[in-house]
Amino acid sequence: MWFYLCYILRVSITIPSSLNSIIQGMNMEGLSGKVIIITGASEGIGRALALALAPLGCKLVLSARNESRLLSLAHEVASQGHEPFVFAADVTSKSQCQQLIDTSIEHFGRLDILVNNAGMTMWSKFDALIELDILERLMKVNYLGPAYLTHAALPELKKNQGQVVIVASVAGLTGVPTRSGYAASKHAVIGFFDSLRIELADDNVAVTTICPDFVVSEIHKRALDGQGQPLGESPMEESKILTAQECAKMMVPVISSRGRLLITSMRGRLGRLVKLFAPRLIDKIARKAIAAGH
């Protein structure tokens, strides 16, 4: 029973360093030579993930709207592994999503893993929200974008028995004050990919959901306020939250092992269980986390 609880909560168990190195090496072997598309790769988690995957022999497609940042990242990736392919695209455009998939397959000859990472957020109480179009924008980027890309990629992923990775959020597992529209979009994307996982089981296409807690990223500075304008500075106490590099390091073995779910924080893992029998407590924890900024 104790071991099962540790597994559910991912409690750290001391493992000799030599054995841990062997386990980590085995976990990473599955990624060598894989063609992987990463959206939202120009900064934050996407950028950190690209740099974490590059030394493992992956063939990376780097995509985001900002081409200059992608080209800068491509130089760093190339210095550690294969020359990446850069394709600037907006995930809210169905045609650009299709072009990204088609061009990537044409360039590398195949596609093995699609990492849906591009995202945006908000920071406003709902009753202070003046520009309601924010809700639509959040859904387009955080939910419809991954749906468009995944639909375009499925024929190739089915052929190769590949994998879809969705970077969701702990806000997709529970409500978060001042993030209502963001939480809604992440709840939607988790429900969508949970459903898709079942549909794709017979095709042996894995679906991996990543639920980060707060991570140091430019996404917080670009979070939209009630009038639809970027905040300009992060409201988070960044010294007390996970770095993008730490998050990427946690993601790599889960992606390599074709795991089902990663929740990056203990409070996120505990919250998922506690919500079943003490939902008011989870509301208080969410309110306190936003007030404290970490």
List keywords for this structure.
11 helices, Rossmann fold, alpha/beta, 7 strands, globular, 294 residues, seven-stranded parallel sheet, single chain
Brief sketch in words of this structure:
With 294 residues, this protein is α/β, with parallel strands linked by helices. It has helices spanning 2-9, 17-28, 44-53, 67-78, 94-108, 133-159, 180-199, 218-221, 244-256, 266-277, 279-292; strands spanning 35-39, 59-63, 85-86, 113-116, 163-167, 206-211, 261-263.
Structure, explained:
The longest helix has 27 residues, at 133-159. It is built from eleven helices and seven strands. The chain is 50% helix and 10% strand. It has a single domain, classed as NAD(P)-binding Rossmann-like Domain (Rossmann fold, 3-Layer(aba) Sandwich). Helix 6 runs parallel beside helix 7 and helix 10 runs antiparallel to helix 11. The protein is of the alpha/beta class. The protein has a seven-stranded parallel sheet, with helices on both faces. GO terms for molecular function: oxidoreductase activity.
